[in-house]
Design a protein that fits this description.
Elements lengths: L2 E2 L2 E2 L8 H6 L12 H34 L2 H18 L10 H23 L3 H9 L1 H16 L8 H25 L9 H24 L1 H6 L3 H9 L33 H23 L6 H21 L2 H20 L9 H10 L9 E7 L4 H13 L4 E2 L1 H4 L5 H13 L1 E8 L8 H15 L8 E5 L1 H9 L13 E4 L3 H9 L1
Parallel strand pairs: 3-4, 3-5, 5-6, 6-7
Antiparallel strand pairs: 1-2
Helix pairs in contact: 2-3, 2-13, 3-4, 3-6, 4-7, 6-7, 7-8, 7-10, 11-12, 12-13, 12-14, 17-18
């Protein structure tokens, strides 16, 4: 267990070390290792990595749901996370050895309570239906919290454990009651006073012993304990007030009665149509996921991620948050998968070409262009003037703002290279000599010239279309103001190009 092949235990990530230490039981110290020993250890490591990956994914989803303000998405992901954290607790160990896991579990229980109460405050029929659809996840989380509270918990000599109980008990009751009221549309108000009184009694006892424990451990709390533990201990007094009479006091909803407008709260006709559009795009993404599920190429997965990101923006604007929630789930899953891939290749399958075409990205069978128009963005108006003139003369020019969709930087560079490769001729539009030094103009000019020099474009024309003042400067210096490699190319006046340009390109 100290070394596995060339990897030592010290090289492993910190989160894996406790699990590997526990794995010592599978590898006898006598050195007589059977195949089953290694199989059991391999399974242990595999399960450990899977759980860690799942946790990281859930935390990413929770952060993304918070960003778009979706309490239901947060609540579902927090419920899954709480179940996973409860399963990680090793109950045979002492509370002190499990302290970090209990603290993490407590933090997420508090967050789940916030999400459930927020969900209840903003409830409508659609959200209530979604809660019912996710019922099993909430039940599992409630069951996990209940199991924790029903064990020999807390250790009454541990100030942190007592504080965790003080926080978790009212949170558990709020989560349970809000869940019941959401799925029953408020037909059930309380799950039973006897049921709740058991936990309230435990909570009261913890609140009673808290002051003495706090005084006893105050020096340790102030200087030794980790920040997360200290915050839980210091926040415990805010959760002292709990009884059947005031269970929903403080920042809890004052009125749990279902609003009369709930059943009548329907989307407008415009909203309904936009939701239908979102659901149609959602279905198309499902089909692409199904068709491309065996794709391991990063480019396909990036395309699919882009499609979900655009749909998320649309869903946020249109209010179709049930679609937006799924987008967040898929985006975070694709991000995690992309991190594990080290290739950047195109699979060139029909599925990938189809989704790229739908998104407006370049595909391998893209069209040929008569001429590539290069320009500094300050000269966009001039370049567009040339572009439309060539179109009127039945030519097919390439201009990035007209020929490409809104795409990312890496995708943009690939599209530019693809267009240069598929263009017969090249024109650079110029209103200032210093524009020749701009990154994209210089890159495009050198790339196309290299294709000419290497003989891959033997019949290509390379033209510099300059405004009159720039043309005069170039002529006055006998082209010495240009890089020597461009002096042999034709230079045209912008004021005269409409009469002569087309003949160079046909």
């Amino acid at each position: 267990m100290a070394q596995w092949g060339s990897v030592t235990l010290s090289d492993m990530p910190d989160f894996s070390k406790p699990f590997l230490e526990n794995g010592r039981q599978y590898i006898p110290e006598d050195g007589l290792h059977a195949e089953t020993d290694y199989n059991r250890l391999a399974l242990l490591i595999s399960n450990m990595l899977e759980k860690h990956t799942t946790k990281e994914l859930l935390y990413s989803k929770i952060a993304a749901f918070k960003q778009i303000g979706t309490s239901l998405g947060c609540a579902v992901s927090l419920s899954k996370l709480i179940v996973l954290l409860w399963q990680e607790l090793e109950l045979e160990k002492s509370p002190q050895d499990n302290m970090g896991k209990y603290v993490e579990l407590c933090q997420n229980i508090v967050e789940l309570r916030k999400s459930m109460l927020e969900l209840y405050r903003n409830k409508n029929e659609r959200w209530c239906e979604s809660v019912r659809e996710s019922s099993s996840k909430f039940k599992e989380a409630i069951s996990a919290i209940q199991q924790m509270l029903d064990t020999d918990f807390p250790d009454q000599n541990q100030i942190t454990m007592v504080s965790i109980a003080i926080l978790c008990i009212p949170c558990f009751l709020d989560i349970y009651i809000s869940y019941v009221r959401l799925i029953t549309l408020d037909d059930v108000h309380f799950p039973g006073q006897e049921f709740m009184q058991k936990y309230i009694s435990k909570h009261t006892h913890c609140c009673t012993i808290y002051p003495a424990l706090f005084q006893q451990h105050q020096a340790e709390i102030d200087s030794v304990l980790p920040y997360a533990e200290r915050q839980i201990i210091l926040s415990a007094p805010a959760y002292f007030d709990l009884s059947l009479d005031n269970l929903f006091s403080g920042d809890r909803p004052e009125d749990w009665k279902l609003p009369e407008t709930l059943s009548a709260k329907l989307p407008s006709e415009e909203e309904q149509k936009l939701w239908e559009v979102a659901e149609c795009i959602q279905k198309s993404n499902h089909i692409f996921r199904f068709l491309g599920e065996k794709e391991e190429e990063a480019q396909f997965l990036r395309c699919l991620k882009t499609s979900y990101e655009r749909l998320l923006k649309f869903s946020t604007i249109s209010g179709s948050m049930h679609v937006g929630m799924e987008c967040v789930e898929r985006i975070e899953e694709l991000k995690q998968k992309l991190e594990l891939l080290d290739n950047d290749t195109f699979s060139d399958t029909t599925t990938e070409r189809a989704i790229r075409a739908l998104l407006g990205f370049t595909v391998s069978e893209d069209r040929q262009y008569d001429v590539f128009l290069s320009y500094k963005h300050a000269d966009l108006d001039l370049a567009q003037n040339v572009f439309h003139h060539l179109q009127r003369n039945l030519l097919c020019p390439f201009l990035d703002t007209e020929s490409l969709p809104e795409i990312g930087k890496s995708e943009y560079e690939a599209a530019i290279m693809h267009a240069l490769d598929n263009s017969k001729h090249f024109i650079v539009v110029l209103s200032a000599l210093e524009y020749l030094d701009s990154h994209w103009v210089e890159l495009e000019m050198r790339t196309f010239r290299h294709e000419i020099v290497e003989g891959r474009k033997p019949n290509a024309n390379f033209l510099i279309l300059a405004t009159d003042d720039v043309y005069d400067k170039i002529a006055a210096t006998n082209k010495t103001c240009l890089d020597i490699c461009y002096r042999s190319y034709e230079i045209l006046r912008f004021s005269q190009y409409q009469d002569i340009l087309v003949k160079y390109l046909k």
